Amino acid sequence: MKVDLQKASDAELVAYQLHENDWFVRRARRILAERGGNAEVHTGLKKILSENPDTSRKLRALWALHVTGGLDQALLLGLLSQDAEFVRAWAVQLAAEDGKLPGNIAGLAAGDESPVVRRFLASALGRLSPEDRGNSLLTLASRKEDANDPNIPQLLWYAAEPLVGADTGFAAELLTGSEIPMLNRNIA
Q1: What is the pLDDT of residue 131?
Q2: In 3-state terms, what secondary structure has residue 179?
Q3: Helix (H) or strand (E) holding 63
Q4: Lower CB density within 10 Å: C or N end of the chain?
Q5: pLDDT: is 2 or 176 the higher one?
Q6: CB contact set of 61 (below 8 Å; sequence gap of 6+)
Q7: 98 to each of 66, 127, 139, how far by Cα in Å?
Q8: d(CA 52, CA 58)
Q9: Are the beta carbons of 120 and 92 closer than 8 angstroms?
Q10: How far is residue 51's CA from residue 147's CA, in Å, rounded to a whole number?
Q11: How far apart are CA 63 and CA 143, in angstroms?
């Protein structure tokens, strides 16, 4: 059976986000991105995101909303209360994509119980301007449970390094509150 997704309607392309074959999913998402978003597309994708029980389908809808311009701060903030940790993590990732991360999103992510969400936030901090990193760095550095994580301590150091060199007061505050030995050694 030959399928030409270019001839598919927007609604059909949205439905392809649920397809079992990931090739169809990615191709449909690319075509939706090329066409640009519209209310019908965004409504269909938001329905998948909110109602589908499968995390992978939720992520597909989230990524399609992103490439079609259907995400806003309110939606991303709402996703931080989802049960699926990867949906919460990707909400942080996509919220920080433009180099800005609203404080309410950063604050919720820093307090998240999932190391996956905190890892995504720690990674996102490096894309923010140095003055927008401080509070999240302080919160993440105080999470003792991340001391032996294979990634979070290094990501925190990458985000902290320019601040530590430029502001000894912040460096002292971070060192005092940090529960991450590797970060403490690097600050010192």
Answers
A1: 85
A2: coil
A3: helix 55-67
A4: N
A5: 176
A6: 17, 45, 46, 48, 49, 52
A7: 12, 8, 22
A8: 6
A9: yes
A10: 36
A11: 29
> What CA–CA distance (Å, rounded) separates 74 from 59?
17
pLDDT, tens only, 58-69: 999 999 999 999
Query: Residue 99 gets which letter from DSSP?
Result: S
| Dist. CA 74–CA 138, nearest whole Å | 25
pTM of the model: 0.92
CB 146 within 8 A of CB 113: no
Question: Which residue, chain included where needed, has tokens 């971070």?
Answer: 174
Q: Which helix (H) or strand (E) holds 29?
A: helix 22-35
H or E segment to which residue 125 belongs: helix 115-125
92 with 122: CB under 8 angstroms?
no
In sequence order, the 6+-apart residues with CB closer than 8 A to the CB of 123 are 93, 151, 155
CA dihedral 18, 22, 25, 27 (to 10 degrees): -170
**DSSP label at residue 76:** H
Q: Which two tokens stand for residue 96?
A: 């920080």
Contact 85, 42 (CB under 8 A): no
d(CA 144, CA 28) in angstroms, rounded, equals 43
Q: What confidence score (pLDDT) does residue 67 get?
A: 97
Helix (H, G, I), strand (E, B) or coil at 72: coil
* CA-atom Rg of the chain in angstroms: 19
